[in-house]
Design a protein that fits this description.
The chain has a five-stranded parallel sheet with strand order 2-1-3-4-5, sandwiched between helices. It has two domains: 48 residues; 158 residues, Rossmann fold, CATH 3.40.50.10140. β1, α3 and β2 form a beta-alpha-beta unit. The chain is α/β, with parallel strands linked by helices. It has seven helices and five strands, in the order ααβαβααβαββα.
Length: 214
């Protein structure tokens, strides 16, 4: 009888120890999962916020300049501008018709905007050079698009050609000497739907990374 009582007492102690251990283990697992969830939520929030809300250095005003020839690519430039302002913030993106105040001298306003530009996006369709029956507009020293690109290259601003509608990169021999540098810039293809947003996601990922390091 004494032995039975001792055995019962011992069995009770083992059960209590196991219960305590299992409870402590459960608490530790729940705490770890909660920590992982909080960390994931913070990273998701940072990713989804506009750049201007999460950047740690510098100003984002007109950080991204969108250059395009209206007759060539306004249909894509508008969509691209909408996506970029949604992801990076409205003030971070410059596009002529959306960014120049009424009555302002667009030449001076564009020049001032390029002073704060960190990335120059050059939207290039099949007629980016403005080819007509007699000449190419890009050959005109007063062509606005030419002036924009020349200014960006002169200031060593990263220039990213955005190729649309299946357009190829122009050959260096097709460009004025002052623009020949763009023929060697790494380009990105932005295709029509259903690939448009996937291609722009890749572009936005680069812009977020570049602007934070700039």
């Amino acid at each position: 009888m004494f032995i039975s009582a001792a055995y019962a007492q011992s069995s009770g102690q083992v059960t209590a120890a196991e219960t305590f251990f299992n409870g402590a283990l459960l608490v530790a697992i729940i705490s770890l999962l909660a920590w992982v969830f909080v960390l994931a939520a913070k990273k998701l929030k940072t990713y989804r916020q506009p750049y201007s809300a999460t950047a740690s250095v510098g100003s984002t005003q007109n950080a991204v300049f969108v250059s395009y020839r209206r007759a060539d690519s306004i249909h894509v430039a508008g969509r691209l501008h909408d996506r970029l302002t949604s992801d990076l913030g409205k003030s971070a993106v410059f596009k002529d018709i959306d960014s120049i105040p009424l009555g302002a001298d667009f030449r001076h306003h564009i020049d001032d905007s390029l002073k704060s530009c960190r990335v120059f996006l050059l939207v290039m369709g099949k007629n980016w050079q403005g080819v007509s029956a007699s000449k190419s507009r890009i050959d005109d020293p007063d062509d606005l698009i030419r002036i924009e690109v020349e200014t960006a290259l002169r200031r060593s601003i990263p220039v990213i050609p955005i190729l649309i509608d299946g357009a190829p990169m122009p050959d260096v021999t097709q460009l004025p000497k002052s623009l020949q540098g763009i023929a060697y810039r790494q380009a990105i293809n932005v295709r029509a739907d259903p690939d448009f947003h996937r291609d722009v996601d890749r572009l936005v990922g680069f812009l977020r990374s570049h602007l934070r390091m700039a």
